Amino acid sequence: MFVLVEMTDTVRIPPWQFERKLNDAIAEELNKKLANKVVYSVGLCICLYDITKLEDSYIFPGDGASHTKVHFRYVVFHPFLDEILVGKIKACSQEGVHVMRLSRFGFGSMKLMKEPMTFTWILEKKSGSELWMRHLLIRHQQGQVQQMHQHLPQKRCKKNLPTDSQCWIKRHFGIIFGIFQLSLSLSIILGQIHDYHSTTFVRRDDYQIFIIGIYK
Amino acid sequence: MLSNFEVFQLLTDLKEQRKGTKNKNSTGQQNLNTIMYETLKYLSKTPCKLQSPEILREFLTAMMDHKLTRAEKLQLLNHRPRTAVEIQLIVEESEERLTEQQIDELIQTITVCLPGDPEEEQATEMQQEQADVEAEDEED
User: Fold this and answer.
1) Which of A46, A136, A177 to mutate to test the interface with B (most CBs of B within 10 A)?
2) A124 vs A35, A188, A191, CA distance in Å?
C-alpha cells in the first residue's frame, strides 16, 4: 500500500528561518510542499521519511533566501496492481445500477463518478440473512470489455488480463479503492456452500473493478 | 515497499515530535495534519496497530518456507486473513501453488504469529459457542 520513493528537489529557505536547523527547516518545507498531494505517476504523498543527502546551499542575487538541493525519501500511497484494500462504502444509489461514491479515509480524489457498475452478491451459508462483501480488488487497466460471469463454488476463474501501468490518475478520475460493507437481508439460502467466489468484471473506460471474494 | 506497521510507527513518532512545536496550525501545515490524521485513523483500525518489529521478523522467518512473493507476504501481514477465501484472494493462483493443507498451515501460522483484535476474537468465540449449543440441541 505504501511505497518509499526517492526524490530530489531544490528547497528554498527564506531568511527569517535561518536560525532553525537546516534539516528541520527543509523537512518542514518538503512536507508543506508535498504532503497530501498527488504527484503524477508517483502517488499520494504522505510524509517525509528521511533526508538522504543535502548538497551545498546557494544564495542567488536578488533573492535573500538560500536554495538547497535535497535528496530525500518520501512515503507515498501507491497500491500495486492486484492489491487488496479494505475500506467502507460511503454512499450508493439504486440497486442494480450504482453510482458509488467511495471515500476511504478522506482521499477525496478517490471517487467513482458518473460510472454505473453492477455487482453480484453471493451469500455464504454461515451468514444466514446478512451478506457482507468484504474485498474489492482494483485494477487500473485499459482494455477490452471483459465478460460477466459467476463462479461455481470452489472453482476460480482465471483471466489473463492485460496490465497497464500508466499513471493512475487520469484526468479527474482517481483510483477507486474501497472495501464495501454492505448489509442486505436476503431470503435466499444457498445449499451447503461454504466458500463462494464470484468474480464480476466490469469495464469502465480506464479502470476495472473486480469483486473477487464475497463472504461474511 | 513499506508495511502498514512501519508507516503507522513513522506517523506516531512524527506526531509526538510535532506536539512540541508551535506553528502546527499554520496554513502550510494543514495538509500534513490532515493526511496524518486520516492515515492514523485508518491504520488504527487495521491489525497493524498491535504489531511490533519482533513480530514482523518472526512472521517473515515463518513465511520463508512457503515460497510466497514479497507482495503476498506484505498483504498477509497487513490484512491478517483468517479464512481460506481470504488467502485465495491474496495469493495468486493459490489452487496451483498451495494445497489445502498448506493453506490451513498458513492460517495457523498467521493466527499464531500475528496478534489479532481481541474484541473480534471474543465475538468469534461467542459465535462458535452458540453454534455448538445449537448443534447439541439438534442432536437431542
Assistant:
1) A46
2) 42, 10, 9
pTM for this entry: 0.61
ipTM value, please give it.
Answer: 0.78
DSSP string, B107-125: HHHHHHHS---HHHHHHHH
Grid cell 454512499 is found at A91
Q: How far is Cα A67 from Cα A42, in angstroms, rounded to an integer?
A: 24
A169: which strand partners? none
For A211, the enclosing helix (H) or strand (E) is strand A207-213
Beta carbons of A82 and B14 less than 8 Å apart = no
Q: In chain A, which residues have their Cβ closer than 8 Å to the Cβ of B83?
A: 195, 215
pLDDT tens, A55-76? Answer: 999 999 998 999 999 999 999 9
* Bridge partners for A136 per DSSP: A85
Average pLDDT, chain A: 57
Say whether B14 and A47 touch across the interface (CB within 8 A): yes
A-chain residues within 8 Å CB-CB of B47?
none
In this complex, the residue of B36, B46, B95 whose CB is nearest that of residue A156 is B95
Q: Worst-scoring range by mean pLDDT, A31-35, A136-140, B59-63, B74-78?
A: A136-140
DSSP string of A27-75, one letter each residue = HHHHHHHHTT-EETTTEEEEEEEEEEEEEEEEE-TT--SEEEEEEEEEE
Least confident of A181-195, B7-21, B64-78: A181-195
> What's A124-161 look like in SS3?
CHHHCCECCCCCEEEEECCCCCCCECCCCCCCCCCCCC
Q: Which residues pair with A91 in a beta bridge?
A: A101
d(CA A31, CA A210): 35
Name the helix (H) or strand (E) containing A213: strand A207-213
With beta carbons under 8 A apart, name residues in chain B contacting A3. Answer: 1-2
Residue type, A185: S
